[in-house]
Amino acid sequence: WFIQQCVLARDFSLQKLKLALPNDKKIFGIAEALLIGYQYDLDSDLMQVYGRIGVVHIIAISGLHVGILFAVFWWITGSFPLLKNRNWFRCFFVLAFLWIFTIISGASPSVLRSTVMFSVMLFGKAFDRRNNAITAMFFSAFLLLAYDPFLFWNLGFQLSYLAVGGILFLQKPIYSAFHSKYKILNRINEMLSVTIAAQITTLPVTLYYFHQ
Questions:
Q1: 91 has pLDDT over 80
Q2: Quick check: pTM over 0.85?
Q3: What is the rounded CA–CA span in Å between residue 75 and residue 94?
């Protein structure tokens, strides 16, 4: 039932996009991929170019998009006086937005991982509990695998959890190893350490599946 609702919501969104966008297959294909993660209308030559230059992840909806939406909606709800000091209502509104986006985007494993993780953390906020990203990551994996054990063999699921695990466990040690007294260098180091941490843990899987 859940998967059926995701497909129906995505089809409805695609129909609305077709009415709003220019009648150009390339533009339409990219817009679909960027906004709701639908990649079946993407131009094959364009996909090959993106793959060769290593930016194909730009047109794939992932947990990063959910993280950005979470930050935006949390900031927006915090600016409303009625919601600012009411954690329950604020968490409910943000959760609703995240799950609507997840369903419309087709609920891919990486998006589900991120949304379930944020859901766990938001429930903690609602009850004024201390949030722990590592606990949220493992608990979200448990919930998703309880729902569908075969997700474990899904490449998107594997890469998503390996990347997040790398960031949570390796980012701080990498950052500390190259700490500088200059603020701008530390800022660059912070961003690079996130990338390197994710690359270290996902590298074995990408080599195994893609041989490059």
A1: yes
A2: no
A3: 10
